[in-house]
Amino acid sequence: MMKHVITACLLSLAALAVQAQATPAGLWKTVDDDTGKEKSLVRISEAGGVYTGKVEKLLDPARQDARCDKCSDERKDQPVLGMTILRNIKQNAGDAALWDGGEILDPNNGKTYKLRVKPVDGGQKLEVRGYIGAPLLGRTQTWTRVE
């Protein structure tokens, strides 16, 4: 009997560890859709149940001084390095494996899109879907967890 209790406790702890890792929080490597090259590192952090993501590092040495010259909000002409590109993401009330309600900025064209993110592969990858109107009208990138 005691063996079953210990096994159940260990399985519960393992499940909690996987669940803690399966959130969007962390450091993620992004990939350029057109070239397939690694583009940046984005750190997603959580405060009060709301997630935001900032560009922590640009991986192309030629883009270190890149600015968002096509942005139309307060990020206009600001450096992409250090810029908040994900805002106001919250865990979906109906699907605990999904975070949405926020927006993502594409610094290359200055446009913002509605956003849905979903950790996959035990939280080691993040499906990032930017869209206009409905999620069907968008594109998905897969980011890889760095830490």
Structure notes:
With 147 residues, the chain is mainly β. It has a single domain (2-145), classed as Lipocalin (Beta Barrel), CATH 2.40.128. Helix content is 14%, strand content 45%. It contains 1 helix and 8 strands. It has one helix spanning 2-21, and strands spanning 26-31, 38-47, 50-58, 84-91, 99-106, 111-120, 125-131, 138-145. Strands 1-2-3-4-5-6-7-8 form an 8-stranded antiparallel β-barrel. The longest helix has 20 residues, at 2-21.
Uncertain residue segments: 4-21
Helix content: 10-25%
Mean pLDDT: 87
| Overall domain count | 1
In the CATH scheme, what's the topology name?
Lipocalin
What CATH architecture label applies? Beta Barrel
Briefly characterize the structure:
The chain is mainly β and 147 residues long.
List keywords for this structure.
mainly beta; Lipocalin; eight-stranded antiparallel barrel
Task: Outline the secondary-structure elements.
Layout: H1 2-21, E1 26-31, E2 38-47, E3 50-58, E4 84-91, E5 99-106, E6 111-120, E7 125-131, E8 138-145
Antiparallel strand pairs: 1-2, 1-8, 2-3, 3-4, 4-5, 5-6, 6-7, 7-8
